[in-house]
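Tutorial sheet, problem 5. The six components below are modelled jointly, 816 residues in total.
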Amino acid sequence: MKITINRKAHFNSAHRLNNKNWSHEKNIEIFGKCNNPNYHGHNYELIVSIKGEIDKDSGFVMDLKKLKEIIKEEVEDRFDHKNLNLDVREFEDLNPTVENIAVVIWNILRTKIELQNDLKITLYETPLNYVVYTGE
Amino acid sequence: MKITINRKAHFNSAHRLNNKNWSHEKNIEIFGKCNNPNYHGHNYELIVSIKGEIDKDSGFVMDLKKLKEIIKEEVEDRFDHKNLNLDVREFEDLNPTVENIAVVIWNILRTKIELQNDLKITLYETPLNYVVYTGE
Amino acid sequence: MKITINRKAHFNSAHRLNNKNWSHEKNIEIFGKCNNPNYHGHNYELIVSIKGEIDKDSGFVMDLKKLKEIIKEEVEDRFDHKNLNLDVREFEDLNPTVENIAVVIWNILRTKIELQNDLKITLYETPLNYVVYTGE
Amino acid sequence: MKITINRKAHFNSAHRLNNKNWSHEKNIEIFGKCNNPNYHGHNYELIVSIKGEIDKDSGFVMDLKKLKEIIKEEVEDRFDHKNLNLDVREFEDLNPTVENIAVVIWNILRTKIELQNDLKITLYETPLNYVVYTGE
Amino acid sequence: MKITINRKAHFNSAHRLNNKNWSHEKNIEIFGKCNNPNYHGHNYELIVSIKGEIDKDSGFVMDLKKLKEIIKEEVEDRFDHKNLNLDVREFEDLNPTVENIAVVIWNILRTKIELQNDLKITLYETPLNYVVYTGE
Amino acid sequence: MKITINRKAHFNSAHRLNNKNWSHEKNIEIFGKCNNPNYHGHNYELIVSIKGEIDKDSGFVMDLKKLKEIIKEEVEDRFDHKNLNLDVREFEDLNPTVENIAVVIWNILRTKIELQNDLKITLYETPLNYVVYTGE
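Model answer (structure tokens):
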């Protein structure tokens, strides 16, 4: 019996969308006000979804307290109240679009979650915009 | 790397559920108070989901500003503050159940979204009732 | 010890904003697309708030089951899945703006709630627009 | 044309996580404060999702009024304002984790929903923790 | 310049509504299924509101980190994953209705918040039922 | 008859909490990770509340389309996708705490709303923290 467990978390970060290889005009055309050199920011809402077998003895797929700790150590402590472009190593050469942030979080958590379990990342940049990434 | 981007929108419409080929009694039996000949209405909440490759240069699957405009022109401008039965061509001979509205929106947007990208429509008629359509 | 108890409810209705004494042009200028002669509609979210003394024996200001029934009989049964302009007596000569709907609901419920208790009506027309009326 | 219809419901229950075959220490280690012998409780939010063909005549996959009644009789009437461990037969020998509750609800509803339609259960234990079960 | 700061928190508890001085029949009549002797439970959502002057140097009415700690120590640690009737001293002889729980929380926090600041407690028992208490 | 109309809006901004007159240590002690020199950010949710008489002819306190435009021009266009410390004149010498941002918005809008109407600003910095300011 396989089931998906889901845990919500959040982090508040500044970021700027910019492609160093593009002209100023092209950056403005594509990224608009998201290209503001002084940064802007978001309350990112994160849902980590793990699909696996229910353990007969505990009735758990995975201890949610442990999942909560992993998310705190691997994502919140590194992304929360940070400037994604300046403070987070993974975005040194990667544009922190909500798509790319979700992929980075998936890659980080994939190494911390048992491999027989599927992993899915849902990331809200605003209440109106969000992405879903499954590692596909 | 494929990811799903999601954009929320909404429209406020009147509608009535009715099958012209059925008796009054049958319409009342099946549609209940939704059959009110004077119409009732809803705040429809729409989520448009598009799955595709992340562009290496922009970090986008698709520019969300463009998606927002497409949804505004193709759905909101045609459905918002309208009577779906009387004002929207697609429902002249189609009962505007939440299922059928979602299919109509999917058919409209399918022609506007690049074909290599998957399209999914989620439509809330009320906070307690919603449908998901993938074109299957 | 006075406390305010609050109960949420909702109803789905069609309506049209229109002033019969105004020209077509004036109605369009003031009410815009809300003036659509074929109606549009909303999921109205209602909060009924009652402030009074906590009864020592029950620990209740008022039995919420009774309040739920009063709201159902007096508001939901009369407004839900109705056309406010055509089906609800109170709006025969009253424009069903969210302001006026809230005042009508307050007037209806004021006669059903014990007079020593204060009554407040909060009414959402959309998630972005709502009003609060206290009978002031 | 296949579409998924979704209906939300809720129930408020007490429960305790405990494995009778484990020592007190092991139960505390694994279940923490959820092992409180005096019970604690939750507002469970349930989403029942049914995927099937849209009926040409009604425009429905299934009458949502009937689905609402099935959920009320089979889930709410049996789980709401109950102690899951003491009052619900299915948990006599099954630990009422959110995973197991979702599986129990799926098993109950699977016998009430037409077999050609897919069934999915989403169950929120808190706004931050939820599971999704498809019978896989 | 006075402003109100608000901090949300939550706790998950079991409870039972019962008046020891009433007959079984009267308890059932007034409290219905909330009288279940085996308890039921809720996810209580709490909002603590404090009104005071903005400090010129910090721009704060009060450090929200400190408020968060006070709520954790005084409310969450004592109420969360507890049976209110059996585990929380204040309800030994007080019926844990949502009204009375809000008053108890107000009384606890009033001694921890500076006296020149106003205190207001909002407590949701379910998404549809909540109370507001100001110590009036 | 006086009623309060409410309109929601939002803006996404970067900010940093810092007092130039304090030592680095004191800034860290009081503002913690909010003092990050590289900034962090939030999705600010704003509710503008206006209390006034219902106009007999329109049924409006104020045209919500006009209120929406005022909020867009005076708040969203100036604050959205900006760095509050660097890009918004009002915070050159004012620490952009959520308290101070709400006061600044109140002061801006007070000059745009008719004086006989009361004005209240509710501002969410995160879903868990918000303030309410009435100009008191």
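Marking note: The two ends of chain D are 23 Å apart (CA to CA). Full credit if you identified this.
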